[in-house]
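User: Could you walk me through two proteins back to back? I'd like the raw sequence and the structure tokens for each, with a short line separating them so I can tell where one ends and the next begins.

Assistant: Of course. Protein one, sequence then structure:
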Amino acid sequence: MKKIVTVLAVVMSLLMVGHSVKAQTKFAYISVNDLITSMPETKKADTAMNDYQQALAQNYDDMRKEFSEQDSLLSSKDTAKYTKAQLELKRKNLGDLYQKMMTFQQQAQQMAQQKNQELLAPIQKKAVEAIQAVAKENGFTYVFVKEQLLVYPPAEDIINLVKKRLGITITAAAPAR
């Protein structure tokens, strides 16, 4: 009889513990993209990125202009004043310049992507740290990315809590459609 009572007591305590653990699990979600775009650091990064892309474009335009000038020299009637060796050298230089332009164009895309990642990495880190802090403060066990959810209750969106923590002005949300 004592064994039955003991087993029953253990089973009941396990059920209570399981129930209390289940009651402590809280879920939330956030749109990380919306959070990051609302951060003032993102606007500064966008400006820096635009400046960087303009500098790359200017560099490419300078190369293209130089190529165009050399090409027009070789296409004009003035080529008669050059020797055959000079013309070959100028054509080789023109081909090298063209290759340099194509290589730069590919490198510029890679450089722009690298610069973008470099500018956004600290912003993303700050956003994630703020999300983690808000989740901890408010007892959320799990925080999901909103864009990856199909169904979610509006009350569990923590974006305004995170914005408040970051000192971002909270704007009224657009009405749901």
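----
Protein two, same layout:
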Amino acid sequence: MATLQEITDRMKAAVGEDSGLGKSLKFDLKDAGVIHIDGGSVTNEDKPADLTMTLSMDDLLAIGAGALDPTMAVMTGKLKLSDMGAAMALQSKMAALFAKMR
């Protein structure tokens, strides 16, 4: 089982100098903590973001590995989005970021 720090480090490596998202993104991993991405900054600070995705660490890892489809995760309640419009706009950029994490 990956730790919050390991996942944060993988995200930092995938993001590099700039996430390319053009918006800030927060993964709220419930009891496990938070990962906040803004440009090239990846932290575990719980601060406001343009889009907050609430899900378990296991589901984040499954989406990152390609084992769980993000759309299916939303439809089954495993993934909650603070702003569906922002999520739709960022979908392809987030898919590219997840692909770099594999």
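The chain has four helices and five strands.

Let me know if you want the two compared in more detail.
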